[in-house]
Design a protein that fits this description.
By secondary structure, this protein is of the alpha/beta class. The chain contains eight helices and 14 strands. Helix content is 41%, strand content 24%.
Length: 208
């Protein structure tokens, strides 16, 4: 699971980064909203961990902007305040949970596990376990290769929504329109599924 952590306290940020890495999570961290905006724009994440109270803005404001941009990444807020208004606004923005400072890192791990333990995504005869990042077809583990796996799971997580070519290019070390077309064709053949091409814009794995 890939996590974006937004926390302006460098000590807490480093502590959580080290802990989550040891627990098997991949973590990018930002100390400011601007850094978090850039990371969220250039990467795809499975979970956001956002502090609410920041020197220049709020994690709530950032999530509101991301939701407006149709980014529906699951989010857990970190807060030092027992603020009912902020909590209400966060849940209105489809936040998954809150965790109040101070907290033990193990509590955060327990909350993450609880939220994602039943998060298996199914599509036809395909199932995807995002926590383990494993893909199955007819109950059997299937290996699409690193890049194709990233592309398909990105389409699967956004099933029914357009995934832009620019987002899909991020799955490559060296991207090109030809490489993307070849990857999509390979995925379709290996999984026996249809992926719709929206000319000049991107691709959609249509909802069933």
């Amino acid at each position: 699971m890939k996590i974006l952590l937004l926390e302006d306290d460098p000590t807490l940020c480093e502590t959580l980064n080290i802990f989550l890495f040891k627990e098997g999570y991949q973590v990018d961290f930002a100390l400011s909203i601007k850094e978090a905006e850039e990371l969220s724009f250039n990467n795809n994440y499975d979970l956001y961990l956002f502090d609410i109270n920041l020197p220049k803005g709020s994690g709530l404001e950032l999530l509101e902007a991301l939701r407006y941009a149709e980014d529906h990444t699951p989010t857990i807020f970190i807060t030092a305040q027992n603020d009912m208004d902020s909590m209400e606004k966060g849940f209105a923005l489809d936040a998954m949970d809150y965790i109040k400072k101070p907290f033990e890192p193990q509590e955060l791990r327990i909350r993450i596990d609880a939220k994602f333990k039943n998060s298996i995504i199914e599509y036809l005869d395909i199932s995807y376990d995002p926590k383990k990042d494993l893909l199955y077809k007819d109950g059997k583990l299937i290996d699409l290769g690193y890049v194709n796996h990233k592309i398909f799971t990105l389409l699967l997580k956004n099933c029914g929504s357009l995934v832009s070519k620019e987002e899909l290019y991020n799955c490559f070390d060296k991207s090109s329109s030809t490489a993307l077309r070849v990857a999509i064709t390979t995925i379709k053949q290996k999984l026996n599924i249809d992926i719709k091409n929206i000319r000049s814009k991107g691709y959609i794995l249509e909802k069933l």
